[in-house]
Amino acid sequence: MRHPTDGTLRRLLDEPDGVADADRDHIAHCPACQEGLNVARDDAAFAATVLRPDVEVDVDQAWTRFSTRPPAKRATVLSRWRSRLRSPVVAIAGAAVLVTGAGAAAAADWLQIFQAEQVAPVTAPQAELAKIPELDEFGDLDITDEINFRPAKGLTEAQEAAGLTLPAVADLPRGVSGAPAYYVVGKAGASFTFSAETTARTAAKAGATAPPMPPGLDGSRFILSAGPGLAAVWASDHEIPALAVARITAPSVYSAGVPFTTVRDYLTSLSFIPADVVAQLRGFSGDGTLPLFSAVEEKQTSVTDVGGRPATLVQSGSMTAVLWVADGVINAVAGSLTADEVLTVARGLR
After folding, report:
1. Are residues 140 and 26 in the same domain?
2. Based on the structure, what is the number of domains in the chain?
3. pLDDT of residue 83
């Protein structure tokens, strides 16, 4: 029997009567799902805490707790967070940032090979998305700056810390009231070194053979860059915020010499990457499209526009979000709202 989805694990906490007996029995006897349930429980507690404006998030303590977990459990947490990073939470918390500042790359005379110019959905069954390897399964990933998410005392402090201005909401949707809490997402970063040997091992585990890497790709290094950012969050009586408006400096990738197309074409040639995912990625025009991965069982995505710019609308349960890129910044509006309400807020920002 397949493992229940993350959504089912979370539903077991929030609405246990809504989980089928077969899933409930599987979870009760499956160590992997028990660990997943613990992660979901931790996520719920974290979200409940972070949406309280009177509580400061101790990021250092959280990282210490994570880094001291046994490697197997740490891998499970990272896997769960990967699914979170593909979700609308990316827009609210800026948690999609995995990278270091552009200044370091410029100082080393590295070449910028990718700058996010738009966000587009990549949809597939959860079972297919689960086959996509983590980045460290292609080489060595070094997190140089960890994700740093903290509350700010007000809009001015948040804007000064992020170096960005947050647009104002023209009219709050029905059911949303009061003043928001403000949060700052600091720069975060990573460097990555491709490895033919690591990629070959990953392919072998999937029962496949990795083709030879193009000249120069094995051992090539990259710096990924995104952030900082900020968000305004109107809390609700539930875990999901009533409304959140966020902005974060869009991700960039810097290379010591290998062009973006070489990386993209090699990765999409790997036979163990799901064919439907590859087809969607190859369909992106240009080099500036940031994919937003969505499981068809859990999320509905559609293409729309905000201010004449391409945007992606995501609906997952009672959460709706719209994301778009403008002037090198990812913008997002999300919350426990309808699609029309989210789009009205987004298109009315000033």
Report:
1. no
2. 2
3. 40
Q: Do 305 and 156 fall within a single domain?
A: yes
Q: Is residue 77 located within the same domain as residue 96? A: no
pTM to 2 decimal places: 0.69
Query: Looking at the structure, do residues 93 and 77 belong to the same domain, yes or no?
Result: no
Tell me the torsion sign for CA atoms 129, 27, 207, 197: positive
Any residues with CB less than 8 A from the CB of 33 and at least 6 apart, and which?
A: 3, 4, 9, 26, 27
How does residue 120 score in pLDDT terms, banded at 50, 70 and 90?
A: confident
Last residue of a domain, one of 85, 100, 129: 85
3-state SS class at 336: coil
At residue 207's C-alpha, the angle toward residues 204 and 208, to 5°, is 70
Residues 280 and 338 in one domain: yes
pLDDT, mean over the chain = 77
Q: Are residues 116 and 186 in the same domain?
A: yes
Is the omega angle on the peptide bond into residue 121 within 30 degrees of 0, that is, cis? Answer: no
**Whether the predicted pLDDT of 82 surpasses 50:** no
User: Could you tell me the end-to-end alpha-carbon distance of the chain, in angstroms, rounded to an integer?
Assistant: 50
For CA atoms 168, 174, 178, 184, give the dihedral sign: negative
Q: Is 31 exposed, middle or buried (0-12, 13-18, 19+ CB in 10 A)?
A: exposed
Domain range for residue 154?
86-348
Taking the C-alpha atoms of residue 134 and residue 69, their distance in angstroms, rounded to an integer, is: 19
Nearest of 309, 311, 331, 286 to residue 113 by alpha carbon = 286
